[in-house]
Each structure stands twice: as structure tokens, then as C-alpha cells.
Design a protein that fits this description.
The protein is mainly beta. It contains one helix and 21 strands. Strands 6-7-8-9-21-17-16-12-15 form a nine-stranded antiparallel β-sheet, covered by helices on one side.
Length: 248
């Protein structure tokens, strides 16, 4: 009796990739891998989770490799500066658990979130490995919070570079949450540039040695202005409970 062979068919990815431009039409975001510092561009004009390799925008170059696997889009760059870094960025939309907050039509809280997993290594014996994950938004009021044993403290007005959670409230747009994982070094910058707010989450400040791979994560979420401190704190608690990325 002959036996039939069954092969699994991979599920279709949310990402479409044409050249160096990735888009997730059903999620309303676009990512130009030749300009990674621009990050995920949303339909409302937000730029989230840009990977700043330390180059001027005119010096950015396409990745040396890029691929789609499942719902992840990954690319690798070799900036070609004196640091001899090889940097990789993986953008992923997160599947969120039920979190608190006002309900919207169709169920859920209307919160959508992505993470960028960034990594860096070098060919030199030792090099500066500093990278920034940047986001550019409509100007708004900024609240920040710190981690305490993996739990977010209350959000308060003011800017503190040692607090790893940033909540931006806009008058005519949803709120945006940005945060570093509590296991990572907390260094955040917030700048107002005209009618825009630019937020930088700084990674790998201690340098990298040859043969060592550094890896870290930054999360960005967009959700309703109503109840934003509630859903932000709930999402932060969930994110903190996930295992940290490895550094080897």
C-alpha cells in the first residue's frame, strides 16, 4: 500500500516585500529597509521603532540581507564606519493578551503593538556599539515611568533619561507607548522638534567585543487616549514578564 506524503504549507505572512520596501497592508504600516531610521510608518504619519545606525540620513544604505519569516521582517546592515558593526533589526507585530482599557467595536481595547529586536556585533577586538531606536510623533504631552523589580511605577509628567517607559498623549490622535525591557540599560531621550516629538531608546552603551552578540528589544504601542495609563501599565507588566533577549 502506498503512503501519501503530507507537507505543511506555511501560513501567509502579513508582510509583503518588494525590493527594500516592506508593507503590511492589513496593519497599515510601511518599512523602507534602505532607510531603517524612519522605522514603521503608520497611516497617521507616526514613525515608530526606527533603527538608527549612527549615520546621517543621506549615508544610509540598503541592507546586505533581508527576509520575511512568518510575521517577522528581518534585515542586516553593515554601516561601513570605523566601528565595523554588523547590525540586525527584526520587526514584529505582537499578539497581545487581554488587557484593561475601554472596549471598541469588534471587541478588544483597540491597542496594537510592535517590537523591534535589535542586535549588534563587530569584527574589531572592541568597538562602540551604541545604537538608537527612534520614534517620531506628533507633538504631545510626555509622561514617563520607571521599572521597579519588573513592575512599572506610575506615569508622571517630566523627562528623565533613566526611566524606560514613555507615554505620549496627543490632542487629536491615539496615545503612544514606547518602552525598553526592564532587563536592559535604561537610557531614553525626548526632544521636541517643532510640531514633532522625537524619542530615542539607546542600546548597547558599554561597547561590544569581537565574538559577542548583543541583543535587545524596544516595544511601541498605539491605543486609545481614554484609559491610556491603564492599558499602558497592563501592557508593560506583560512585556516585563516575557524573557529577556540573550546577549552571548
Amino acid at each position: 500500500m502506498s503512503k501519501s506524503k503530507t507537507t505543511a504549507t506555511p501560513a501567509a505572512s502579513v508582510w509583503g516585500l518588494e525590493g527594500h520596501v516592506a508593507s503590511a497592508a492589513c496593519r497599515g504600516v510601511r518599512l523602507d529597509l534602505a532607510h531603517p531610521s524612519a522605522g514603521l510608518v503608520t497611516t497617521t504619519g507616526d514613525h515608530l521603532l526606527g533603527l538608527d545606525l549612527g549615520l546621517d540620513p543621506g549615508q544610509e544604505r540598503p541592507p546586505v540581507d533581508r527576509w520575511v519569516r512568518g510575521d517577522d521582517i528581518t534585515a542586516t546592515w553593515e554601516p561601513g564606519d570605523e566601528r565595523e558593526l554588523r547590525a540586525t533589526g527584526l520587526w514584529r507585530q505582537l499578539h497581545l493578551p487581554a488587557i484593561d482599557g475601554p472596549r471598541v467595536a469588534g471587541g478588544g481595547t483597540g491597542v496594537v503593538a510592535w517590537e523591534l529586536i535589535a542586535s549588534a556585533t563587530t569584527r574589531l577586538l572592541r568597538a562602540d556599539s551604541t545604537l538608537a531606536v527612534t520614534s517620531d510623533l506628533d507633538v504631545g504631552s510626555v509622561l514617563m515611568a520607571a521599572w521597579e523589580r519588573g513592575v512599572p511605577l506610575p506615569f508622571l509628567p517630566g523627562i528623565d533619561p533613566h526611566k524606560g517607559l514613555v507615554l505620549v498623549r496627543r490632542s487629536r490622535a491615539p496615545s503612544v507607548l514606547l518602552m525598553l525591557h526592564p532587563s536592559d540599560h535604561q537610557a531614553v531621550s525626548v526632544e521636541r522638534c517643532g510640531e514633532r516629538t522625537r524619542i530615542g531608546c539607546w542600546l548597547f552603551p558599554t561597547g561590544v567585543e569581537k565574538g559577542v552578540l548583543l541583543r535587545s528589544r524596544v516595544l511601541a504601542a498605539i491605543g486609545p487616549a481614554e484609559g491610556d495609563m491603564t492599558w499602558a501599565a497592563d501592557l508593560a507588566t506583560w512585556f516585563a514578564a516575557s524573557p529577556p533577549e540573550l546577549a552571548t
